[in-house]
Write a structure and sequence with these properties.
single chain; mainly beta; Immunoglobulin-like; 5-stranded antiparallel beta sheet; globular
Length: 519
């Protein structure tokens, strides 16, 4: 947010779990130590795999850009702050990869600048301009993604003179720029970027009233020919959103118009396969597009999540649903509230983890000092009822981040003092698998289930708890990542859960796997 008024930062940062329990939520340090904590705006943050948090803040808005890092193991913030830009910075964004590395990008004038954070050495690269000299970039179009082990990417649109989408890749040592020109002559808007661990990327943008997409191929190190999405039923498209998981399943969604009716549509995609069909799902339809806005997210298993607002009832309706883009199954649309006021921007935020769960957050239009947050549980297959986070002044700059383990942070700005709250829930185990063993001597004929998992990435994990359904089977030291369950009835479905436990006794979300003899 930019304003001539001097704002005092109130950054209330709260980490939520899908099942947030009293035994796993606790407070962290009371303030984010920017150099001038009473004069910060446009705060952005990202959470790494071990619970470390990188926060960006503009000091004296439109001036210096600083970065500070919270270490979840030592429970301390870095000091002094890292100065990424000393002047004329605006519109900062940041993303973190699965190793804790990060890219920060921002605007200086009409150019895009960036810096790469290397987690192992705990250092930032020298900030530099990554947009071409001829580009006049549009601030609202900048996006960041990571390409597995091959580096990170920043993408944006240029809208003066010629119109094109431009991107730059950091390969570990330097930024490499790759651009292509859109053959039409209309301005580009609503640019979105999705990236995968295979090194592919998918870009989606709106050109006039037509959504376009292009796939980046790591072998050629550049983008393919842009392809438009044309639906013979609809005439106009608005507000495209792209959600891409690190494993490849993706979903594009947008608002379309046919005659006097509007519809929110979902298009399943898969990266890096070609975009060659228009198989869409209608998630909502209505007559009045006023106040429409939506957000999407997707997990590696294909669960796509959608949170949107639109005019309706007595003022403003906020709704959500989930559709698996692989199976085509989904949850019913949930209406969280029908607010009498539509004057307050809910600032919708939505993110998902690697386990198929999601969390949405928004400002309550009927109580602008409150934030509502609702979670989707993959285990239950439903959205929960919204919970309230009460603030002390009108909420601004609502921001949400999530790591793959399922830790969520929500941040916002009030016009008071600087505060910070979050928990240090450890990361869950990953890659949990199960297979059946038919034992020989001396247990001839006995059926066992062998569980294997990858250790938690959190450094303070000391134990793993293994459950079959709701029954605790064993507690193992952190050096053990396998367990065999004996005397399992043949041809019986069984679901197992493995939890990480920290030295402080804090329990993670569950990693789960189901043995099905029919699979």
């Amino acid at each position: 947010m930019r304003t001539t008024k001097t704002w005092t930062l109130v950054l209330l940062l709260s980490l939520f779990c899908i099942s947030c329990r009293a035994d796993i939520c606790k407070a962290a340090p009371p303030a984010i130590p920017f150099s001038d904590p009473n004069n910060v705006a446009d705060v952005q943050l990202s959470i790494g795999p071990a619970g470390n948090i990188i926060a960006l803040g503009l000091i004296n808005p439109g001036s210096a850009l600083e970065a500070v890092i919270y270490n979840a193991q030592t429970q301390t913030w870095s000091s002094p702050p890292e100065m990424l830009s000393s002047s004329t910075a605006s519109d900062p964004i940041i993303e973190t990869d699965s190793k804790g590395n990060a890219i920060a990008a921002w605007f200086q004038g009409n150019q895009v600048w960036a810096s790469f954070y290397e987690a192992f050495n705990k250092t930032w690269t020298t900030s530099q301009q990554i947009s071409s000299a001829s580009a006049s970039a549009s601030p609202a179009t900048v996006q960041i993604g990571f390409l597995g082990s091959t580096g990170g990417m920043v993408i944006w649109a240029a809208n003066e003179g010629s119109y094109f989408v431009e991107s730059s890749i950091f390969d570990g040592t330097a930024w490499q720029t790759c651009a292509h020109t859109i053959p039409q002559t209309q301005a580009i808007s609503e640019v979105h970027l999705g990236t995968t661990d295979s090194g592919h990327a998918l870009a989606l943008w709106l050109h006039g009233s037509t959504p376009f997409a292009s796939i980046y191929h790591p072998n050629t190190h550049c983008w393919g020919i842009p392809q438009s999405f044309t639906n013979p039923i609809t005439t106009t498209s608005f507000f495209p959103i792209l959600a891409t998981s690190n494993a490849g399943p993706s979903a594009a969604s947008w608002l379309t118009k046919a005659g006097s009716s509007y519809a929110l549509e979902l298009l399943p995609l898969s990266v890096p396969f070609p975009i060659d069909q228009y198989l869409s799902y209608m998630m909502d339809s209505f007559q009045n597009p006023d106040h429409f806005y939506h957000q999407s997210a997707i997990s590696p298993n294909g669960n796509s999540f959608h949170l949107w607002q639109r005019a309706g009832g007595s003022g403003l309706i906020i709704q959500a649903n989930s559709i698996n883009v692989v199976s085509g199954t989904g949850s019913d649309t949930v209406e969280f509230a029908d607010f009498s006021s539509s004057a307050i921007n809910p600032q919708l935020q939505l993110k998902s983890d690697h386990h198929g769960n999601a969390i949405g957050a928004w400002v309550d239009p009927s109580a602008p000092t409150d934030i509502k947050q609702a979670t989707y549980s993959a285990q239950q297959g439903t959205w929960g009822s919204p919970e309230t986070i009460s603030g002390n002044a009108p909420i601004q700059n609502l921001t949400l981040s999530v790591n793959g383990a399922g830790n969520y942070a929500v941040a916002w700005i009030e016009s008071a003092s600087a505060l910070v709250e979050f928990d240090n829930t450890p990361a869950a185990p990953s890659n949990l698998t199960v297979y059946e063993i038919t034992n020989r001597f001396p247990f001839q004929g006995e059926h066992s289930h062998q569980l294997n998992w990858k250790a938690s990435t959190s450094p303070d994990v000391v134990q793993y708890k293994v459950y079959k359904e709701n029954t605790l089977l064993t507690i193992l030291p952190n050096s053990t990542t396998t367990f065999r369950v004996h005397n399992c009835p043949a041809d019986t479905v069984a679901t197992y859960f493995v939890y990480s436990v920290s030295a402080q006794g804090i329990v993670s979300l569950a990693a789960s796997v189901t043995f099905n003899p029919q699979d």
